[in-house]
Design a protein that fits this description.
By secondary structure, the protein is an all-alpha fold. Helices cover 56% and strands 0% of the residues. The chain has a domain of 51 residues. It is built from four helices and no strands.
């Protein structure tokens, strides 16, 4: 039996946005490990080559830090006159030029 889009096979299941219990437990364990063994982990990381150290840190950080999501800005220029669009463009270009001067 195929499910319709948006329907769950278990209507009383985990609600959307609720973290998986195993994932939550794993994150808590990694966080506890880092907190309780911080000095040892820091020493171990210091013993790695720089590239290995960064890779290890990034892998551990995934369990503790929230991932940033992309955002998109949409600007509707349809209600602006040609002169207003030209003014905005000139300001943006001037700001861009000033950015590289510093």
């Amino acid at each position: 039996m195929a499910f319709k889009k948006g329907e769950s096979g278990n209507p009383r299941g985990r609600t959307k946005g609720t973290p998986n219990a195993i994932t939550k437990d794993l994150r808590e364990r990694v966080r506890d490990l880092l907190e309780n063994q911080f000095d040892q982990v820091a020493d171990d990381l210091a013993g790695l080559d720089p590239k290995e150290r960064v890779n290890a840190w990034l892998k551990l950080a995934e369990f503790v830090l929230p991932k940033l999501q992309r955002s998109e800005t949409v600007i509707d220029f349809s209600n602006l006159s040609e002169a207003e669009i030209d003014t905005l463009f000139e300001r943006a270009m001037a700001k861009n030029d000033n950015q590289w001067d510093n």
